[in-house]
Design goal:
4-stranded parallel sheet; 8 strands; about 45% helix; globular
Amino acid sequence: MKINLINPNTCIGMTEKIAASARSAALSSTDIIASMPTHGPESIESAFDEVIASAALLDVIKQGEENQVDAHIIACFGDPALDAAREIATVPVIGIAGAAFQLASLVAYRFGVVTTMTRTLPASEHLLQRYGYQHLCSGVRATDIAVLDLENVADDVYRELKAECERALFEDGAEALVLGCAGMSDLTEKLSADLKVPIIDGVCAAVKLAESLHQLGLKTCKIGQYGSPLEKAFDGRYQHWNSNKNITKERYI
């Protein structure tokens, strides 16, 4: 199968790092196609960043559809533009936060989330509510480590992340930990060895869910909420969407 792995920011190093993590988890028969927008913020650390990045992300979803990929993964813990992406996609679109929550709930009674910036805590809490996992989450903690500092993790950055993970375990009562940033994906093995608890990275979790859906022959339902957008005129920088002619109906309905 072919997975369109999308880093919604414009940092090339982060895209390469996320792709390496995804490939380490994927089956040998799975082709991980790493992609990213050509415009937008270099990191996503606020609601403003997310909105700007979302429009560019949808362009990458459209490109993946044209290349007939079998699934899309949005590799940002905010799961930006997820509903919109599912409207224009014919195959599953998986956000890494939702994927991580699902797997964490299977291996622990209560899990904690350790993320990057304090200002993103409300976004993580909102996602827990949206997916229905708030009652299983012991708490969300922020490290105030900038996203781009995770591209090449220095020793002091790792110590800071590990310390916050320990607080989540010993103060909040977490039994497993979800890493709240795609840039943390390569730290799963080391943290798991140091902390002796399940550590869930959403990138790898999303890859395995995508593979499972593909093997089961399950695709996004195109009736109701995730039906194709209504055709209409788009102006200015969004004129390229005028060529969208309900491709979902042509391929799967």
